[in-house]
Amino acid sequence: MKTLTIKRLAIYLIVFFVSVLLIFGLTNFSQQMDTFLVEQANQVDNSKNLLSENLKVIHIEMQNTAGATEKVKQFRNKIINFLATISNEYDKGNKVEGIVLDISFSEESVELPRLKAILKELKDKGVKVYAAYNINEKETIEANDHNHALEIYNEYLEGSGEAYNYGSGRYHTKVYTTNGGLVTYEPEMFLKSVFGDTVIIESLVKKVAHGLSKNKELLKEKTNREGYVIPLGSDQEIKSVTYDFITDTTSNSGRFESNTGNGKPLEIDDNILVVGDIINDKIRDGTPGPYVVTWALNDLLNLNQGGKQPLEGNFIRVGQALFFAFLTVLIFAFLFQYLKRMQTQPKALGLLSFVIGLLFLSLFGVLVLSFNTVIPIGLTVIAMAIAAALSWRFANKYLSTGVAEGSEKYDVFISYSHGNSDWVLKNVYEPLKGLRKQNGDKLNIFFDKDDIGVGEAFTAKYMWAIVDSRFFVPVMSEEYYGKNHCKNEMDLAYKRSVEKKITILPIAFTYDCVPEIYSHINFSDVSVNGEFINGISQELLK
Question: What is the model's pTM?
Fold first, then answer.
């Protein structure tokens, strides 16, 4: 029996792991649940001002002209004029804190000397200028470099001087969006060189934050994580700090106009300017790329507000799923042990254990959320549901063996062949139905003619009813033990009687009707004792 139980448990464990792996591997349902929870945890109140006051967005549009070279030329001229304007403002005492160009520079040589000159001018003045580095992850660092204006990244941008290492001037702006208004990005990306070395490309927003933050210790602690989640604030708020740069071809400079037309002048002094094309540079959900960079910078620079980060890592996800699946099984076992009246309702117990497990998971999630971290729930909920279902299934087997304690819901279970139903109804059921206990209550009798309806799970219900009964009264006729349901009832009741969990009071039409394997049990022979029901009644009322 012990070996059989261990074997059965092993089968259930195998089914559990295979089911979890199949559902997790073949669907993205669990990932969707995780993403949804992170989105909900990061819902922002758009009525509040969430954006740091020293962040401004500068829109410089790349015109869709016919020729590619002309297109690059016009756009670079605008960038050069913008940088020249900032340089002029610096000379007037309006010193910008930093410039973040959400723009990458291609190897196209047009206007490149002028661009280098203005970048060098700003660098000599101490103005920090950062720029994006457009990455193709499938190519080597050399192939990526070949598509960029290398001298710009190696000599003129903030952090330049150590090619291929931290501070090389190469910073990525790879971002990923969700439908729920979140943006995620990686703090670091890795490229291979032709020599097999790994080259680290930092995130642009992380590099800028570390370069411009006034609280670098807190920032270092905050950015020590695998990835980032940024909740996007309202479009209205970020548009209110967006300015169009209008070039002046006669003076090689330009002016700034509010994108919303509110007439509010741009403040450059001690501000961080995020520069890009908000019309043509958009990520897949339609959010302008420069806006994403701005909100990401806001997340890192505004340390008291940041996004709530997902608790990531496969070990964490799998470990959490296994823990709460095991907890669900323990809850089921506890309920099964102590809620005896529900032992014969394993489906309800399975559902209840799952719900209680979810409650514990929710409490754990709230606790972890207090540390601005969101737990992954997808795989865990799937594992808990499978654990609850398998517990229910195991309980069915457990009940069918008669090992369960039972709730003593019924005083007596009458087992008989339906070919003898009229006789049983008149001579057994009706007399017992008229009995009264010492407190005046009627006997609670399980009589399948009344208790099992059309379409019900017959086998499960009568076995569970036996488990929940104090006495078992089999009416043995010639056909009784030849009927499958009667045989199953008698066998189950006998197992329980051996464990002293039920008392059997057999009735036989004749001695020959008693199955040979149960001939050792004392029974009332109807053909000999016409007052058999009195003896049974006395036993029931003791």
Answer: 0.64
